[in-house]
Write a structure and sequence with these properties.
Number of strands: 0
Distance between the termini: 35 Å
Structural class: mainly alpha
Order of helices and strands: HHHHHHH
């Protein structure tokens, strides 16, 4: 099957955003960390606005439907299968757990380096409660 260039561009953009999670592990420069902090606020607000879904994932899913491509609803599972030939579609909960552990660890490290760990812990608690609320269902 020929891959649509738009899908490839969106996939690469989304994959690069997955790897951006490493910024707090690599950098200690407060300017870079503050920029990343505000970027994460933007990402989390998007997840809240779109009921625990990434706006890029929503766009990608709509393109998949348009081209009648059968894909998993979880974009990370799609990327692992399409780009790394790792099929984890039978264990989506493990993939989600792994992603959330890395995501939250990165966020806690970021807020620790910015001396705002209380905000990091509070935000994670708030977001986990939000995800289980009636607003997301």
């Amino acid at each position: 099957m020929r891959i649509n260039p738009l899908i490839t561009i969106l996939n690469l953009l989304h994959l690069s955003l997955y790897f951006i999670i490493l910024i707090p592990c690599i950098y200690n420069d407060p300017k870079i960390l503050i920029c990343y902090y505000y970027f994460l606020i933007f990402v989390y607000l998007g997840w809240i606005l779109f009921k625990d879904k990434c706006w890029l994932s929503i766009i990608e899913q709509n393109i998949y439907k348009k081209y009648k491509m059968k894909k998993n609803k979880n974009q990370l599972i799609n990327y692992l299968k399409d780009y790394f030939q790792i099929d984890v579609s039978k264990n989506p909960n493990i993939v989600n757990l792994f992603y959330h552990i890395i995501n939250y660890s990165s966020f806690l490290l970021l807020t620790y380096k910015l001396k705002k760990i209380h905000i990091g812990i509070g935000w994670i608690v708030f977001y986990e409660i939000y995800k289980k609320s009636v607003f997301v269902k």
